[in-house]
Specification:
Blueprint: E1 11-20, E2 27-37, E3 42-47, H1 53-60, E4 68-73, H2 82-85, E5 89-92, H3 104-112, H4 121-127, H5 143-155, E6 161-165, H6 173-188, E7 192-196, H7 200-206, E8 209-214, E9 217-222, H8 224-228, E10 233-238, E11 250-256, E12 259-264, H9 267-280, E13 289-291, H10 295-303, H11 308-317
Parallel strand pairs: 3-7, 3-8, 5-6, 6-7
Antiparallel strand pairs: 1-2, 1-4, 8-9, 10-12, 10-13, 11-12
Helix pairs in contact: 3-4
Amino acid sequence: MNDNADFNPAVRVRGLRRSYGHGSSAYEAVRGVDLDVPLGSITALLGTNGAGKTSTLEVIEGLAPATAGEVSVLGLDPIAERAALRPRTGVLLQRSGFSGDLTVRETLRMWSATVTSPRSVDEMLALLSLEARADVRMLALSGGETRRVDLACTLTGSPELVILDEPTTGLDPESRREVWQLIGGLRDGGATVLITTHYLEEAETLADRLEIMHAGRIVRSGTPSEIAAGHPSKISFADVSGVPDDLAGVRSLVHEHGRTTLETDALQTSLSDLLAWAAHNEVTLDGLEARSPSLESVFLSIADGRDPAAASAAQEALPDKEGALR
């Protein structure tokens, strides 16, 4: 989040709350979220199961009202000024619901009729590598091909802000990489992208900024390198006995599942000391792996409650004895 008075984000969220139900049975899915999506950036919104990510996204998209808080999208209210906002945004939902009886070309032609200043159908077919499937009915497409049609529709109007909800679900690795290139190209062309994904590699590869939700709050925010900072590196190898637990920088040493794993704050130093110990004791470290902190390690620490901010958010989300949220 950036509170600079001159900062003008594409999406600005302050104090967002969203509840379901009423009274003692109410459930607060989003609990005071602040979020900025900078213009011309790719921002990934990630979340553990039940974090409130979808509830947050629906408010930003103008599909549901906030219970409390303020939301601005391209300087407009996403609900009250939806008519003015709609031509400037493209939204990819998890499911499109297009008719299975229409061909791909007919689907794109139908969608372009709803868009201000649409790009040509042939251009969109080429952009998403769909030329060979243009005259195939939607119901005959694979999941990945259907997703590419969804993306083509989303981008038909050359939107300033593109919101992509799980854009590569169902795609094979090659197609996923092609979509990554397309999304990167949107940013390079000046568009702003807000993306949700379950693929951590996707977020780490594409995003300029990450916002990680847990228990209704954003618990980590920053660039991928900023978020990984402070988390330990890991060294692992086929299990051997006698490994000293006082190697420089080592936080912990665990033997499980046939492997020895070290967590360290000084990867190079710990690895050097470990190799020196192994050479001195004539020990072979089979399957040796050394990994710097990753988004995956941070995400897992949040999901399993080892991250202090996530643990605090989860505790505060628990109902008290009277059933109200703390």
